[in-house]
Specification:
Blueprint (H helix, E strand, L loop, with lengths): L8 E4 L2 E7 L1 H4 L2 H6 L2 E6 L16 E4 L11 H16 L10 E5 L6 H14 L3 H11 L7 H12 L13 H42 L8 H15 L14 E4 L2 E4 L1
Parallel strand pairs: 2-5, 3-4, 3-5
Antiparallel strand pairs: 1-2, 6-7
Helix pairs in contact: 3-4, 4-5, 4-6, 7-8
Length: 260
């Protein structure tokens, strides 16, 4: 395992006192203190959130986010960015209670990078590619999954807020959510088909082995059931559906959302 050090925790270009890391660096009090980090934003699973005693002086926030292209990242972006902004602003406060901010996930590659990129996009008013380039200056492995990338681009077109002035979901966000539901349902259907196919193959293999051992002969009821399962499988579409483009045919254009 790579030794823990500065290389596992990276500063963010143009934003002093903002850092990104994996879960291991986030658990090192000595490393955090050496960089003046006080605030820790964990965008990962609960088991990867660092646990410090209150007297150690660290302040944390946890947001449960899966590293999956269909995960609803966009709904968390404003809250995460506001939290980072408030913590960094406290560095200049009169109470002297400021400290650096660390954003981490499991490996410091996708989820934490996506949140930091979103913060840069909103703060510096730059696009996704520019923000990603800034992060990769010090953290070349930063690589949000394609679902996060697309949502960040949508978020920019939604003016960094999924709600309008009356608190209603904006049309672009609603379309994104509708497509997400369709893809999730499709993934579940594909999983069921794959499991069904696996059971049929397993039963067939067991039947063949028993037949070779002389326990079965001729056309058994078990074989008939296997053939019925295989026929049902063929009627249901055979192979698992190809992976669906989670964006659902929507493309970003100059006015926001349009059809490809």
């Amino acid at each position: 395992m790579e030794s823990l050090g500065i290389s596992s925790l990276s500063g963010v270009k143009y934003i002093p006192d903002l850092y990104i890391s994996d879960r291991f660096a986030a658990r090192s009090p000595a490393l955090l203190r050496s960089l003046g980090i006080k605030y820790i934003l964990s965008v990962t699973h609960l088991q990867d959130v660092p646990k410090f005693a209150e007297e150690e002086g660290f302040v944390g926030k946890h947001v449960e986010i899966e590293d999956d292209v269909t995960e609803d990242l966009i709904v968390h972006l404003q809250g995460c960015c506001d939290w980072i902004d408030e913590r960094l602003s406290s560095l200049d406060g009169e109470d002297g209670d400021g400290g650096g901010v660390l954003v981490h996930c499991t490996q410091g590659i996708s989820r934490s990078a996506a949140v930091v990129i979103g913060f840069l996009m909103r703060t510096l008013q730059i696009d996704f590619d520019q923000a990603l380039a800034h992060v990769r200056v010090s953290r070349p492995q930063a690589n949000p999954n394609e679902g996060f990338e697309y949502q960040l681009k949508v978020w920019q077109q939604l003016s960094y807020d999924v709600f309008d002035s009356e608190g209603r979901e904006k049309e672009g966000y609603k379309r994104l959510q509708e497509q997400r539901v369709r893809v999730l349902v499709g993934k579940e259907d594909a999983l069921v088909k794959e499991r069904f196919k696996g059971v049929a193959v397993l039963v067939a293999d067991i039947g063949k082995m028993r037949g070779e051992e002389g326990e079965w002969s001729g056309k058994s009821e078990a074989w008939e059931r296997v053939e019925m399962m295989e026929e049902k499988w063929r009627r249901s579409g055979g192979e698992v559906e190809e992976e669906v483009d989670w964006r659902g045919g929507f493309a970003l254009d100059g006015e926001g959302w349009g059809r490809e």
